[in-house]
Amino acid sequence: MRDALSFLRQYLPIVRDPYSRHSFMRLHTYHKQFTIVCTGMMSSPETKPSVGCHETADEYVVGYRGLIEDAIRLCASRFYDLHAYPHLKATNAFEPRTLEIYYTRDLAYQRGSTLWSTEGLERVLSGSVTESGIAWQRPGATVNDISALEKWIETFHGQVSEHIRADDYDLEHFARREAKALKDFFVSLKWRAHVRKALIDTGALFSTR
Q1: What is the pTM of this model?
Q2: Taking phi first (over 0 means left), then psi (-120 to 50 degrees means alpha), and beta for anything else, what does residue 7 get?
């Protein structure tokens, strides 16, 4: 095994995966395995000046990092520049609302992914942009999560029963939405220990969800 790794390192720079034991990755993949996205509201003037302006949800990529800790630090260093939407028109204004850290590894992040919940993205951590800083949402304790899952299953069963009794043809949409919520829950469990450690190590402001 060591000989094989030594051979690969001669031609492909590889590093250990800090989040998966006995795993390795290419160096360029490591540096981009976490994508930081800022979402907010874009204000644009209406055609008629007297009407005012309208707002639409928008987002942009803040940057990429190889560790959750480094992603948190990058967000903190860019806090006062989060409103600086890339190539922003002089007549528009962007108000940052949320910062999200996604595990993308070697997947290319596509614009609009967070707004439209593209499959394949794992949201590792999210935080609210406030006037004084970024308030990250720290995962709660395991016991709380188990209770939350039990409550979710009970609520889901009741809602499905209501849809069936009402002969609701929108049941498929409802089931898809709830399936995504359940997926997000298990993604949170997967990254819990790493996120909690990263928040403590960086001294970041957080609230427990």
Answers
A1: 0.75
A2: alpha
